[in-house]
Amino acid sequence: MASLLSRGDVVVCPEGTTCRENYLLRFSPLFAELIGEVSPVAVHADASMFYGTSTTPIAKCFDSVFFLMNPMPEYSVNFLEPVHTTGASSSIEVANRVQHILADALWYKATALTMKDKYSMLAGNEGVVATNRS
After folding, report:
1. Which residue from 3, 75, 82, 131 lies 20 to 30 Å from 35 (Cα-Cα)?
2. pTM, full prediction
3. Coiled-coil region(s) at which residues (predicted)?
4. Which pLDDT tens digit goes with each residue over 83-129?
């Protein structure tokens, strides 16, 4: 990622949630350690009937199909003001600030839960996909 940034390319660091509820999971601070400015983009996928939020690895590949099965699937994209990371006391502080900015834009509640916490509660594992190879 650092080499892409040094060339001036755009790097996307997906963060957020795949929950049906309006909660935003805690962000990893790694993105804030690499650059001096973060341009948050709030993306909301609205579903009325079918939700693409599987927790099992096999069913996960069908999430986009479920979303497109909705009678009126809708995406909304909101480009927000850049957040400068220089001068911040830590990358964790920057990640928390970006999380709260995105949560406010989406009308979500920012939480301290991580992806590991989410999978522990929903699927009984830590989000690790075990493979059985013979």
Report:
1. 75
2. 0.69
3. none
4. 888 777 788 888 889 889 999 999 988 888 766 766 666 666 655 55
Is it the case that residue 6 has pLDDT exceeding 80?
no
132 CB-near residues (< 8 Å, 6+ apart): none
The closest of 25, 30, 41 to 5, measured between CA atoms, is: 30
Summary mean pLDDT of the chain: 76
Distance CA 28, CA 77 (A): 22
**37 contacts 94 by C-beta, under 8 angstroms:** no
Domain edges within the chain: 43-90+118-126
- End-to-end CA, the chain: 34
Query: Is the Cα dihedral 49, 72, 99, 33 positive or negative?
Result: positive
